[in-house]
Amino acid sequence: MNDQKLIEKTADFIKNKFAREGTGHDWWHIYRVWQLSKYIAVKEKGANMLVVELASLLHDIEDHKLHDGSSEPGAVAARAWLKSLGADEQTIAHVENIVRNISFKSADIKNELNTLEGQIVHDADKIDAIGAIGIARTFSFGGAHGRLIYDPDQPHLKHYTYELSRAENTPVIHHFYEKLLLLQDRMFTKTGKQMARHRHVYMEKFLKEFYAEWEGKI
Ligand code: ADP
Ligand code: NI
Fold first, then answer.
1. Fewer CB within 10 Å, N- or C-terminus of the chain?
2. Whose atoms come closest to the Cα of 176: which ligand?
3. 154 phi and psi angles, rounded to 5 deg
4. Is residue 177 a contact partner of residue 156, using CB atoms and an 8 Å limit?
5. What is the CATH number of the domain that holds 155?
6. Which of 64, 141, 165, 178 to mutate to test the pocket of ligand 1 (most atoms within 8 A of CB)?
């Protein structure tokens, strides 16, 4: 099967699998990460585009939050899918490795992505978690999980361990401090850093506005 066919078949498979997801981890998240990955890859130059496209399409094939934080089921599923299409072992192993290491777990856990392709897909995934889209996804998640939008009596805290970050039923605004505002400093690529900076500034403006409105000041 040629590269284009592999990508098309994978996109169709993932589109069908995620068709009924409405919590922020939906096909359109995957679609945006796919487009962002291609954009960053062209800017950064030198990446293996087949690996970038397949890994961006497969990066959320399983949700670690539904598997006690383990990215292993996703890595296994990505391998099985690519094997069923007859992809070559080198491509499969590279994509599997990216799927295993891409997820944000907590502030104290660094993502181990040591290939350009992995760094590109990582940056694309995290860019889609910030800015206007990131804000929308985060409130959508909060609604789906019955969370408060904000509670000024609860202190903001960075969740230093994976267990803490999942165990607490914190308001949506807290997620900005647990994750969203940390992402710009976790970018690997130059293009990713630039894009994240723009979206970070937008989130800071949003928060400023939010707190002012909360107190009835504007
Ligand atoms: P990753 O894509 O790095 O694996 P997750 O799957 O944990 O990250 O989260 C994806 C998105 O879901 C986040 O960027 C955010 O928009 C939303 N989300 C996850 N956890 C929370 C939370 N506790 N509160 C609000 N939104 C959340
Ligand atoms: Ni994702």
1. C
2. 1
3. -95, 125
4. yes
5. 1.10.3210.50
6. 141
Per-residue pLDDT tens digits for 98-139: 999 998 777 777 778 889 999 999 999 999 999 999 999 999
Q: Using CA positions, which residue lies closest to atom 14 of ligand 1?
A: 129
pLDDT score at 110:
77
For 2-8, the CB contacts below 8 A with 24+ separation are: 3/49, 3/50, 6/50, 6/54, 6/82, 6/85, 6/87, 7/50, 7/53, 7/54, 7/57
Residues with CB under 5 A from ligand 2 (ion): 60, 125
pTM of the model: 0.93
148 near 208, Cβ under 8 Å? no
User: What local confidence, expressed as pLDDT, does residue 63 receive?
Assistant: 82
Q: Which helix (H) or strand (E) holds 159?
A: none
Residue 31 burial (C-beta neighbours within 10 Å; 0-12, 13-18, 19+): middle
Domain coverage including residue 47: 3-214
H helix or E strand, kind and range, residue 107: none
Identify the residue whose tokens are 């970038």: 52
Count structural domains, the chain.
1
- Below-50 pLDDT ranges, the chain: none
pLDDT at 132: 98
